[in-house]
Amino acid sequence: NATAKAELGRATWKLLHTMTLRYPETPTQDERNALASYFRLSARLYPCGECAAEFQMLLKKFPPQVGIYFSTAPPIFTCTQTSSRKSAAGWLCFLHNQVNERLHKPEFDCANLDATYDCGC
Amino acid sequence: NATAKAELGRATWKLLHTMTLRYPETPTQDERNALASYFRLSARLYPCGECAAEFQMLLKKFPPQVGIYFSTAPPIFTCTQTSSRKSAAGWLCFLHNQVNERLHKPEFDCANLDATYDCGC
Ligand SMILES: Cc1cc2nc3c(=O)[nH]c(=O)nc-3n(C[C@H](O)[C@H](O)[C@H](O)COP(=O)(O)OP(=O)(O)OC[C@H]3O[C@@H](n4cnc5c(N)ncnc54)[C@H](O)[C@@H]3O)c2cc1C
Ligand SMILES: Cc1cc2nc3c(=O)[nH]c(=O)nc-3n(C[C@H](O)[C@H](O)[C@H](O)COP(=O)(O)OP(=O)(O)OC[C@H]3O[C@@H](n4cnc5c(N)ncnc54)[C@H](O)[C@@H]3O)c2cc1C
Question: With 70 as the cut, is the pLDDT of residue B69 above it?
Answer without folding.
Answer: no
